[in-house]
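tool=predict chain=A
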Amino acid sequence: MTSIRKNSWFMAGLYILVFFLLAEWLTPVMTLTATAYKPLFLIFIAMALGMSLLRVSWWISGPLKLLYVLWFIVYVYTGEVFFTGEAIAFVWQDLKINLAALFSQNWANTTDVFRTLLFFTLLWMAVYLIHYWVSFRLSIFLFYLLTVVFIAVLDTFSPYTGNTAIIRIMVIGLLLAGLLHLARWTERHRIELSSEKIAAAIIPLFIMIAGSTAVALYLPKSGPVWPDPVPYITSFSSGAGSGPGGTVGRIGYGVNDSQLGGSFIGDSSPVFKAEVASGQYWKVESKDIYTTKGWELTENIGDSFLYENGDFIATDFTPGDPEMQETALLSMDQDFPFVLYPYGTESVVMDENLDYEYNTADQRIETYQQGDVFEPEVYEITFSEPTFSLTALRETSAEDLAELPAEFDRYRQLPAELPQRVRDLAEEITASSTTIYDKARDIERYFSNAGFEYSQQDIPVPAEDQDYVDQFLFDTKKGYCDNFSTSMVVLLRSLDIPARWVKGFNEGEIVETKDDTDIYQITNNNAHSWVEAYMPGVGWMLFEPTIGFTGSSAVEFDVEVDTAEEDEAAMPDRPEPPLPEELEDEAAADQNAGPSIWSRFQSFLDENSSKIGWGAIALGVLAAIFYKFRYKWLPRVLIPYYRLRSGDTATFEKAYLRLLKQLELYGIKRSEGQTLRAYASYIDTFFGTKDMTRLTNAYEQSIYGGRKDSIEWRELQESWENLIKQTTG
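tool=predict ok
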């Protein structure tokens, strides 16, 4: 028999859990600072914890840790495995540089070696504090709480995703809390446990935590109750916007697209409302120069045309059927010095007397009032969505590309550094197609069929020598609209097909309906990018490669084709064939009646049999856990129950017998042949009270003394409740 604090296996288990908890601190720091050599840092933590566990003297552990830190610096910054003369000279020279910077208080001149030394010092101090909390205080709550807050904050405000880390931390923390509570309880009550009994006490803890974790992971999760506050907070940051350079940006329309990549935080801030019959893509501008990292616009090229209210605006997309003409009323919530317009725009009208400048270089419609930039608040757009003849599209050929004028050259530009495998992939994707349109459709569909994933989190930024498209196509296969649209433009240009990168907003969400018109709310979350490709003899067409979006141009199926070749999203809805007249009434009756309650129940069981089975197992495990630990929660039921009962002798006798059972559940069983008075004396000694003796004397007077009338349950109730509460620990 030994004290649990002196049980080497028990303490080793605590320190192993602490190691994993410290690793959860280290992981996001390594991720966010792009620091390598994580295993070497973990070795240092393990070494420091091991020496703390073994109580190695400071004059031994200190030099060993310092020696390891020096070796790390030598290995990482010089590449030397051992302390060679050159390595020692490097350390000495770096030390002099940092000492000079510190004495002159010129902190910017400190080197990476000095910062590494500070980081190791931080880890050293953290291990010492945790050793003190675990070995002497037997409490880890403060460090556990700080860990949860640390990971939660980084998960919320940085590119680091801590979804699984939060789960690991909760499991590790609960295990540590339970084991340390066991250690404190045994020491407080001076109970010595053998290794077998310690194991017997720990096993239920592991089962309970494992079961509750499994159930928590399995159960469905409801959505957030409150809107995400992060976009509101980050909107005050100067970096909010497009998130270039790998920072976590606030999603929304941005101007600088020269450095794409990095994660985004959603932002539901409203941009504008559109009152229109059907959802539209709202175009702002396009860009033509791909730089291997992002997009820029060719300067001093293209013509500008001025229009007034109601004038026909000649964009690159000819309006469709005049009979299908629509109007859209836009009410702006954010200030933009340009018009957001749908495809097939014919004219723009505002209450103000404005000039509209359409620039053929980027297709942006800018707004001016008496020569000054103007930010419109409300305007109406007349448009007719263009449609494209499948017959004409099926006649586009590679020979037509060679006849395009020089003005299209900028839409076929590619950097010389573009990896050859990107061009090879474009050829591979379109090998079975002959027309330009079919090749474009092949590339558009490629992303949905090749294992790509849409996500705004954990999106890397290409390294200095890495191409943005190449990284997405071959390394990550994970990204958002910028990744998909840029990749499609580059793949099209690899085939000499003119294409450009387009920015704007997608349809948004319907928030209200008026007669035949819907009102769409477009927010920063709807900022989007897509592709326009030029079909020889047909014109520019909109393509949508991003997974989950359906904004491609409408195609008129004016030729007999094999519909299996066409994407389902592009096909018009077919009406269901009419039922024979004699079956119409029967079908209508069946439809009105609907499936029976029993058949619906049977279908539910068939569809959810596995879930129901696992749910039953989980409930069974929970029920067993509740029953096993009923001594903990049962007093919270007994106390209010007996408070509501009458204060007669019968109530007291039942309460006393219930107390005996509760003490037995707690683990203090009355020995065979032991008198009630002797048992009461032992209980009072164990808990340090006199309550049990008082209750026992009253019980014996009631049972054996024939003095039931003298028992006042209300006077004894406090003593009874004190003992009941003691058994919940």
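Residues 4-218 form one domain. The two ends are 23 Å apart (CA to CA).
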